[in-house]
Input
Amino acid sequence: MATQTVAEPETTLDGQYDGERGALLRLAVVTALLTTVTLGIYRFWARTRIRRYIWSSISDGRDSFEYTGTGLEKFLGFLMAVVILAVYLGVVQMILFYFGLTLLGEPQTPEQAMLQSLAFSITFVAVLPLIFFAQYRVRRYKLARTRWRGIRFGAEKGAWGYAFRAIGHWLLTILSLGLLLPWQTWRLERYMTDRSWYGDAPFQQGGRWTALLPAMSHIYAGLCIMIGGGMVAGLLGQAESGGVVAVLGFVWLLVGVVVYRVRAFIYLTENKVLDGNIWFELRIRATPIVSTVFLGGLMVGLITVLIFGGLGAVVMFLLLPAVMLGEGAVFIAVVAVAGLYLLALAVSGSLVLVWILQPIIHQVVEAVTIRNADELDYIEQRGHDTGADAEGFADALDVGGAI
Amino acid sequence: MPGVAARYFDGRSAGRHDVDLVLDEVGGQLVFDGPTLADGPQHWPFARLRAQRDHARKGGLTLMLHAPTGDEAPRDPARLTLTDTGTIARLRRLCPDLDKRDLHPGTWGRIAKRGALAVAAVGLILFVILPRMADTLSDLIPIEREIAFGKAVTAQMEQALGAGRAGGLTCDDPDGQAALARMLDRLTAGRELQYDLQVVVFDHEMVNAFAAPGGQVVILRGLLDEASGADAVAAVLAHEIGHVERRDATRHALRAAGSAGVLSMVLGDVTGGAFAVFLGERLIQSSYSREAEAGADRFALEMLNAARVDSSGMAEFFDHIGEMEGTGLSLPEYLASHPPSADRAEAARRNADAQERTAPVLSAADWLALKAICD
Output
């Protein structure tokens, strides 16, 4: 275990992930079906159960993480958020739509499309502060409901401060044509990390934002190829080859964004410190994670096609003979098909979790090493956090992500 | 103490305690102790033992105590993990409440209170505030903007019905258009209307007619095919003019814009969620269509009376729709958002009985020309 000198032995803990594809898929499908049957109400309990499974899969080989949130508190938080958001969204959306109407120019079909996209983007701007607000609340709630070795994680209040900063940083990022993205990434992560705790031990974000600049290389490359392709198409009049190059650049850009996020995550994790004396190592490279994202995505697409293709075949198989048999048989066949359709929806909706998210969590957790882990023994419990809206705003605005 | 090995976290610090554990079946409790435990042996009664649920790692069991804490669930923060399969099996037999879900007292009251509040807020916004605002805003909107919006809506409708290009479905037979103009003149003679009416016929087999914002009225060819006569078409036209004058379409669009956001938020975009949003919106739209429809029907009857057009044409049309409904022919749009046809036919018949002298809205030649407007 000791990785350093003999004179000063240091204890390290290595991450271990025990979640299995089959078990998680079963849980996700069952909870998705329950969600459909309850017209969406069960979704709070569904997410809670999936988190409990994933959290409990993460351990140092001995002691698992524990997710202690409850579906009920999420449901109650959602009800609270609905009261506030119903009024805000309904009124704001209608007023914006009204202004969209009064701003409408010449009556032509493309104008209609433009109006719609305009009205949509304005609505989006109106909920933007709330989305950032909700994102911080999600982080705070997840930390407050995570325990390890019996000790709670937690985060301080600060959702409005986060929303304010996030808007400012996004404006800067857009105005600088993306050049200041690393600054945004680092500052926002520092804002959250510096307010996070494990028991009575604070996390701190170290490092420099400029260290994230090289991580952007593939984004720049993709952009250059895309713009270059466009220039070739425009200047030389070779629309076809220019178009191909532009598409290639776009794909490169997409990959570049994923690469950036992975590299930034690695750098930010390795530069976090807990309680001033516990460090983290993340021995992983971007390539396997990026390939998990894209190969997993391919797999999800393939399985979805197979599922719905199979469903189509079953429909033919069930309905055609049933039509021959008479009305009763048709009714039974329609019920069976509807059931199968819901099952197919539930399975295909769970695929991203099982084929992309869990494999990524698996790789990341197994690559983590906690250094100077002896110091963990001295960390003391922290008080209970009510969790505020228990992610209610995020659930209402649908910004929570899969887990 | 001869027992099995277990790991204990006291819920006060992150320090791990290796403990020795025995099941005291007589005393109905679990007893454990270890060299690092400062407080001596711990006694956990079987009745208060609870296990972690949806646990991923096999072969282990993490236990905690039911306790009246202020936490998210009534659980003591201390945790005890054991891996000995024999002991786990015995515990499962001895503690029937191991997987019980406990609630804080007063939870049901909180659910009821929050639920009622949320339902009231959403109901208030959907059925009181948004309709009122839609009314106010639809009165405020400048008429030229409304006309522009209406033209865009009509163009999009034409595309949705399958027109390859703008105006691709518009029927433009000059005799038919002249007949349509005569019908419109007859209905609106001597009236001050807010809008300059633009009536067009689209070549589509659906039995339907729409009023778009700003005085645009669209009749689909299927309605001309199925109508019993010119009087019936005049009744439908009068009904749509009623929608136009009441600014129903504009109000509709404004209200839909407001309620779409609220509904998709409440129902969530989970499996089947998009469908539920569609369904919910459909329900709300048809429900407020019903009051709008009743108003437009009243307007239509009044207009027919003033123009001395026999309203039994309207009754026949609704009867016909009722029959098609009965035989299961598909008339999705028109029926979904309109009051039951039989009641409306009855109202039109009663009105016809009270009418004094009437004259056909179009001559036989004009009616034939109108029917052939798309040829």
